[in-house]
Design a protein that fits this description.
The complex is a heterodimer of chains A (about 350) and B (about 350). Chain A is of the alpha/beta class and about 350 residues long. Chain A has 12 helices and 14 strands. Chain A starts with 14 loop residues before the first strand and ends with a helix. In chain B, strand 2, helix 6 and strand 3 form a beta-alpha-beta unit. In chain B, helix 1 packs antiparallel against helix 10 and helix 2 runs parallel beside helix 8. Chain B is globular and about 50 Å long. Classes of the chains: A alpha/beta (about 350), B alpha/beta (about 350).
Chain lengths: ~350, ~350
């Protein structure tokens, strides 16, 4: 990893592997299950089949059916059972097959898991992880493409995470498993197999709540997370060729989010372009924009701007139109730079 | 329709369903579908045709992600369904939904659903509406055995029984929820008992026998129309993988051979041949007609234009609702003049 990104401590790493994002997720679970007997993994078709995207491939074979098991299609009870396990000392990882399927489990996530610590006066908590593939780009239609992270970010008591690189996916998931509070771990499925990078084999974590600066720059800050990041980097590279210096910040954690890194960057560049694929209205970037204007009003050279998904249900046949790709980012960047 | 349905009608619909599924499967392989997920109902034609033909015009229904067959049996137009799956504006939902989200309100189809169990409670509401409006119609929820473990089914069953609604819950039990066989998802496979526990009639029928399904459905629908709802389990076998790409590594070849021996199309065709109601030429002609019809649907879908870019923003709200100013300004920011605006 670049020095820019890697402020984390990598310890006892003997070798590196070239992995894509989903392989890194698989490795994170394998390592955490080896390290901690309390970690259990369950969900729809995660066992023998290894998950619909193969995130859990081989884990039941290694750890057995007591620790890696299939559930019926019962999302409310999958999450609810994870709450009960977590309260009683296990470290459950519940896979919800698509983020769109979290709906039936919504109450158990936002009204139960999120509030356990608070409502018990701190007596107990629910240190569970809900892993779920989210976002569009796989031509799945409106029940297989949603980006619901803002619903969960809006719920105090939950942590919300979305990696964009294999290295981070492993480190963030390990941190999520070790978190003493419930973590919703969104996996940007359209980049599950988009690229490989070197991932240390062995124990390291990427601390929750810390953004990564992917490119350093002076003229414009692009802030994003998850599936939009590869395009954001392309845009930064394209603008660099035109003499524009773009800083790219990958939030990685949505709650808690790294205000300091974002504000430091925008204080330097004076221009912020916030990129996500969730629908525009009330998406999480609205919170980031609010914070930037509140803290940096005098330093801004242009209005804080967004490129996001449209305020429509996710369309079946228009993936490429819906997703904010490099062209839309470039247009928005040009507008900010010419302000 | 039900009073004039003959076994040959059942067979013809089943043959058409199979031809549709084969054609759309080929379309998928050729890259002609807009989506990456396609769930075929081959092996389930007896359930779809037997139940679908027993329903009356005006009856409403919801289906699941494997619902092509039911829709065809209810009079669905293969051209519009194929165009929908190809993501074209000529599709029944303007290319918005695809295979898992087909709906056609003119035929009572209140929507397929890609959330397992998502469409089940809608039939409770549709039945309440039918009673409120005095239409005399029944509403039927079609879903798979995977949904038998969703809590919302039991809430809906309770409501239907409590309020004596004209509802039928139709579980197409093809034995598999994705890669998980039903006996690994449910401790009790006595679904009739579940129905009885909620105050509904429960009946299981071998759905490789389309005429048996038709007879059961006719009776159950008549009862439902009188306010006696039921859960019907249509027992069958999913011939192929969960989706078009799934090679079913979780089951044995022997199990597949055994399951595919329960072929509803072959079973009825064989019976009718034995009764001298059907000869080989007639069956061949029936298959050729179906194949031609579905080839025509594929050609129609491929030739149809894609949805207009601006249509992306339509149907989110009622058409007379002005776009919020913030959204309008946002479009102005990310698009050049006029592009992709409703």
């Amino acid at each position: 990893m670049t020095a820019l990104q890697d402020k984390e401590t990598a310890v006892s790493t003997s070798a590196t592997l070239s992995l894509n994002l989903i392989q890194a997720i698989n490795l994170a679970m394998r390592e955490e299950m080896r390290l901690d007997e309390r970690v259990v993994l369950f969900g729809e078709d995660v066992g023998a089949r290894g998950g619909v995207f193969l995130a859990t491939e081989g884990l039941q074979a290694e750890f057995g059916r007591r620790r890696v098991f299939d559930t019926p299609l019962s999302e409310a009870s999958i999450v609810g059972a994870a709450v009960g396990m977590a309260v009683r000392g296990l470290r459950p990882i519940a896979e919800i097959q698509f983020a769109d399927y979290m709906g039936p489990g919504f109450d158990q996530i936002v009204s139960q898991a999120a509030k356990i610590r608070y409502r018990s006066g701190g007596q107990f908590t629910a240190p569970l992880v809900i892993r779920t593939p989210s976002g569009g780009g796989v031509r799945g239609g409106h029940h297989h493409s949603q980006s619901p992270e803002a619903y969960y970010a809006h719920t105090p008591g939950l942590k919300v995470v979305m990696p964009s690189t294999p290295y981070d996916a492993k480190g963030l998931l390990k941190a999520a498993v070790r978190s003493d509070d419930p973590v919703i771990f969104f996996e940007p499925k359209r980049i599950y197999r988009a690229f490989k990078e070197d991932v240390p084999e062995g124990d390291y974590v990427v601390e929750l709540g810390r953004a990564a600066v992917r490119r350093e720059g002076a003229d414009l800050t692009i802030v994003g997370y998850g599936g939009v990041m590869p395009d954001a980097l392309k845009v930064a590279d394209a603008l660099k060729a035109e003499g524009v210096s773009v800083e790219v910040v990958d939030l990685r954690s949505i709650v808690p989010w790294d205000r300091e890194t974002v504000l430091n960057s925008v204080a330097k560049t004076g221009r912020a372009l916030l990129v996500s694929e969730a629908p525009r209205t009330a998406n999480f970037m609205g919170e980031v924009a609010y914070t930037i204007q509140e803290e940096l009003f005098d330093a801004l050279l242009a209005p804080v701007s967004q490129v996001a998904g449209f305020d429509t249900p996710y369309p079946y046949a228009q993936d490429k139109v819906y997703l904010p790709g490099p062209n839309r980012m470039l247009r928005a960047a040009a507008k900010l730079l010419g302000y | 329709m039900s009073r004039v349905t003959s076994p040959l009608d059942l067979l013809r619909v089943m043959v058409r369903i199979r031809a549709f599924e084969e054609a759309v499967g080929e379309l998928f392989v050729r890259g002609g579908t807009a989506g990456t997920m396609l769930h075929l109902s081959i092996g389930e034609e007896g359930a779809a045709a037997g139940f679908g033909l027993a329903m009356r015009p005006g009856d409403t229904f919801t289906t699941h992600h494997r619902g092509h067959g039911v829709f065809l049996a209810r009079g669905g137009d293969p051209r519009r369904m194929m165009a929908e799956i190809a993501g074209k504006a000529a599709g029944s939902c303007r290319g918005r939904g695809g295979s898992m989200h087909i709906a056609d309100v003119t035929l009572g189809h209140l929507g397929a659903n890609a959330i397992v169990g998502g469409g089940i409670p809608h039939v409770v509401g549709a039945a309440l509406a039918a009673r409120h409006l005095g239409s005399g119609n029944v509403s039927v929820a079609f879903f798979g055995d995977g949904a038998m473990q969703q809590g919302v089914l039991y809430e809906s069953m309770n409501l239907a029984a409590l309020w004596r609604l004209p509802v039928v819950f139709a579980c197409v039990n093809n034995q598999y929820g994705m890669g998980t066989r039903i006996d690994r998802a449910a401790a009790s496979l006595d679904f009739d008992a579940r129905a009885r526990a909620f105050g509904l009639r429960g009946v299981t029928v071998d759905a490789s026998d389309a005429t048996a399904v038709f007879e059961t459905a006719t009776q159950v629908l008549a009862d439902a129309r009188e306010g006696r709802p039921a859960l019907v389990t249509l027992d069958c076998f999913r011939f192929y993988g969960h989706a078009r790409k799934d090679r079913s590594p979780y089951r044995t070849e022997e199990e597949e051979r055994e399951g595919r021996s329960r072929d509803p199309v072959a079973r009825l065709a064989d019976r009718l041949r034995g009764e001298d109601v059907l000869d080989d030429d007639t069956l061949t002609a029936m298959r050729d007609d179906a194949r031609r019809e579905m080839d025509d649907a594929v050609a129609f879908a491929l030739a149809a234009p894609p949805p207009d870019l601006a249509a992306l923003h339509e149907d989110v709200y009622a058409p007379d609702r002005p776009a919020p100013p913030s959204v309008d300004a946002y479009h102005a920011l990310v698009y050049p003049e006029g592009e992709a605006r409703a």
